Amino acid sequence: MIERKTVLYIEDNPHNRRLVRRTLERRGYDIIEAVDGESGLEMVRELKPPLILLDIGLPKMDGIEVVGHIKADDDLRKIPVIAITASAMHGDRERFLEAGCDDYMSKPIQVLELIDKVNQYYPSATNVYQQQKARAEADKASAQSGGQLLAVAHST
Ligand code: MN
């Protein structure tokens, strides 16, 4: 578990990575970067970052597939994922949200919008604590009832 305020940014474009890094580092965030979908997903599994910024057009594995893997995984699905992409065609926003992204920003990146969204979605210490507590309770209940309650908890 990462202790500091850390954001993982999965993006193949170095200009965007530099912009996001500079902008967020000034606001007290550490930025971890991945340059393709495969290594990005690997870092998500390994580091469980509190927040993910995700480009959609990525080498090796596109962002839609990446977010699909994240949201299909019980250990990862609570992590907020914000898509950042140049794609602005009609219906794209819905497509990204349907794929499991929690929110969506279009490129070119607007600095103020970026800061707003990161502050909005970054889990507060209280939230993280409550999530851990809720999960611990669900696990305990599951152990007592042979797994039935956990299935109910996850479906809500
Ligand atoms: Mn890209």
Structure description:
By secondary structure, the protein is α/β, with parallel strands linked by helices. The protein folds into two domains: 6-123, Rossmann fold (3-Layer(aba) Sandwich); 124-156. 51% of the residues lie in helices and 15% in strands. The chain has a five-stranded parallel β-sheet with strand order 2-1-3-4-5, sandwiched between helices. Helix 2 runs parallel beside helix 3 and helix 6 runs antiparallel to helix 7 (148-155). The longest helix has 21 residues, at 125-145. Mean pLDDT is 87; it is low at 149-156. It binds manganese (II) ion. The site of manganese (II) ion has 5 residues, from loops.
Calculate the terminal CA-CA distance, rounded to whole Å.
Answer: 25 Å
Unique ligands: manganese (II) ion
Low-pLDDT segments, ≥5 res: 149-156
CATH superfamily of the largest domain: Response regulator
Q: What is the structural class?
A: alpha/beta
CATH topology of the largest domain: Rossmann fold
Mean pLDDT: 87
CATH class of the largest domain: Alpha Beta
Count of domains: 2
Sheet with the most strands: spatial strand order = 2-1-3-4-5
As a percent range, the share of helical residues equals 40-55%
Rg over alpha carbons? 16 Å
- Oligomeric state of the chains in view: single chain
Note the overall shape.
globular
Number of helices: 7
User: Which architecture name of the largest domain does CATH use?
Assistant: 3-Layer(aba) Sandwich
> How many β strands by DSSP?
5
Strand residue content: 15-25%
